[in-house]
Specification:
The protein is of the alpha/beta class and about 350 residues long. Helix 6 packs antiparallel against helix 8, helix 8 crosses helix 9 and helix 9 runs parallel beside helix 11. The two termini are about 25 Å apart.
């Protein structure tokens, strides 16, 4: 499922603290200290986790600040804080990255054992009933796109999910770029007509795609604002634009192929199993996208049950931690009720 490391400690952890749950994305980090009975003893929110940008140690420093705040809220020491650290981290896309990050987190001394997983596993576990076995598949579409699956015996299905070089298409950033591509070609005559030539620049108060291209190229509109065009794409599609509609349909196809391949790897294609959708794009519940995903998945995995995850991913990290320490159903239920 992930990479685990452990160390021996001379002392014992504080008895009532069992799990340190960490969900760290590119833009924010959530931390929760969980008691052995599933109670939430302290929480904190920190900055984004970006080891490819700042390096592993500096990225873990961001986690450390949030951990210190959560430990203080729980009235506990920062070292030897819990028995187990369950960290679901963005940019832990490859086993080698999980291993490096697990070692870096373990070196901070927050718990006796540490397990690091990709943050998509947190979405999957958060979407399952709190007392359920970890069995199902999740597809996450936020800034990027990813898919994981897991079984109670520890087997997983996953993808590298590091961009086009690993075969990925989709995610909010990718959809915005695709919309810009079609709109640029429509305006200069290389492509078919689409209302995107008006709706995309119009979002920024501009009158043409040329103006938008210039503003993006020269940095007058920051690169980070491109994600604002993804909702514009969906609105243009909903208004009946054929080109925008085709992009939304392609995303549905990508979501379903990811889910179907993961289900197939785990031998679940013909079983009743949850397929959970998460991330800002899928959680927005765009009717065209939802309907097309349901239609296509029914053809590939007719018994699959689609769900949309709205619970915070840190819940998933915490539940995975309780799974790891062998907590009972009552602890799982208490934790789930806290985040309900």
């Amino acid at each position: 499922m992930g990479v685990s490391v452990a160390v021996s400690t001379a002392g014992g952890t504080v008895g009532r603290a069992s799990v340190l749950a960490v969900d760290a994305g590119n833009s924010k980090t959530d931390v929760a200290v969980i008691g052995a009975d599933g109670s939430v003893l302290g929480t904190a929110r920190g900055g984004g986790f970006q080891p490819p940008v700042v390096g592993i140690e500096a990225a873990v420093d961001v986690l450390a600040a949030a951990v210190a705040e959560a430990a203080s809220a729980a009235g506990l020491p920062q070292r030897d804080l819990v028995g187990h650290v369950s960290a679901c981290l963005a940019n832990a896309d490859l086993p080698v990255e999980e291993r490096e990050l697990a070692e870096a987190v373990q070196a901070r001394g927050w718990g006796r054992t540490t397990e690091v997983r990709n943050d998509t596993f947190a979405i999957l576990r958060a979407g399952l009933p709190s007392g359920a076995e970890p069995r199902g598949v999740a597809v996450v579409c936020g800034a990027g796109i990813n898919c994981v699956g897991m079984l109670p015996d520890g087997r997983t299905a996953r993808f590298p999910a590091i961009g086009r070089i690993s075969g990925d298409w989709g995610g909010g950033s990718g959809l915005a770029e695709e919309a810009l591509w079609f709109a640029a070609r429509a305006e200069d005559g290389r492509g078919e007509p689409t209302e995107l030539v008006r709706t995309l620049p119009g979002h920024f108060g501009l009158g043409s795609m040329y103006e938008l291209i210039e503003a993006l190229h020269l940095g007058h509109i920051p690169f980070t604002r491109r994600h604002e065009l993804t909702p514009v794409l969906f609105a243009t599609s909903a208004a009946g634009d054929a080109v925008a509609h085709s992009v939304v349909d392609r995303l549905a196809e990508e979501v379903v192929v990811l889910a179907a391949v993961a289900l197939g790897k785990l031998g679940l294609l013909d079983e009743e199993v949850p397929v959970l959708l998460g991330g800002s794009v899928l959680a927005a519940r765009h009717p065209q996208l939802d309907d097309r995903i349901a239609e296509l998945l029914a053809a590939r995995a007719p018994k699959a049950v689609i769900g949309v995850v709205t619970a915070p991913p840190v819940l998933g990290a915490a539940l995975l931690g309780l799974d790891q320490v062998g907590a009972g159903a009552e602890a799982h239920a208490r934790l789930g009720a806290h985040y309900a």
